[in-house]
Amino acid sequence: MKKIGNQTLKLDNPPTILDTASIVGPKESEGPLAKFFDKCLDDEFWGEKSWEKAETKIFRETINTLLAKSGLSAKDIDYSFAGDLLNQCISSNFGMRDLNIPFFGLFGACSTFVESLCIGSVFMDSLACNNVLCATSSHFCSAEKQFRFPLELGNQRTPTSQWTVTGSGAAILSKKGLGPYITYITPGAIVDMGIKDANNMGAAMAPAALSTLCTHFEDTGRTPDYYDAIITGDLGYLGKSILIDLAKGKNYDISENYDDCGVLMFDKRKQDTHSGGSGCACIATVFSGYLYKLMKQGHINKLLLMATGALMNSTTSQQGESIPGIAHAISIEMEKK
What are 97-109's pLDDT values in tens digits? Predict the structure, then answer.
């Protein structure tokens, strides 16, 4: 492994994404990607007494599904990297507590899934382990309760607001397997342009996405057309549009092969999600359920996957703070480079 340019790591021993799993909630089950997920729920509670307990169950069952699909047991996993949106990452903490796998709890807001893949890949590249687990989750109801307004208030949502994805996505990185491989990692730096509207995450995160995108191209010498697809995490419709415009200002035209998981998750015409999807589970489920299958089927050979996150909480919003953004990117390819 070596550092190239300002921020990017080139992996000498690229790990294979051995398998993935995803479970989504009722609204996601009505969207255009429903057939790609391992399980679609028809109840936000899934038999639990609270939304937080439901999110923990979704996380736990996604991990169990992934282990079953991969043919591995918990004993075969050397380390796990996971996080979520709830205070102190309780969904992943409680979801992992019975598996006895060495655990690293992470928080990168909605960038957490790719953050986990970044750190897991570094562990794998060191040749110190055989398999690592990367996962995250989110839940619309628990996120609204914590970050915005309790659902019981019935507050009207602004047109720029996004719908937190209910679900969980997980992946196993392994020494064995024939791809897709994680070949490059470009961790992001925090970018804060002074936006304070907690209902406009796309605008708050797009500058961070631009920073990481440009850094990745500058460090690797690649251009947008190198990739079959460039996919961001949850900028939504507004953030996606902003990023395209900002990239053009830097002489990068990404309009032909770029999309966003928050746009892909829901049907804008049929589902009232305003500016699209968001949340830790947004990129985690779209990649684990949809994009990974496209890669295994040969429809995508080179993917730049970039997760964005808004690094704020309810306290900072109440105190009038602006919203720092972050974006982490990984290059996923069917051939080792």
Answer: 999 999 999 999 9
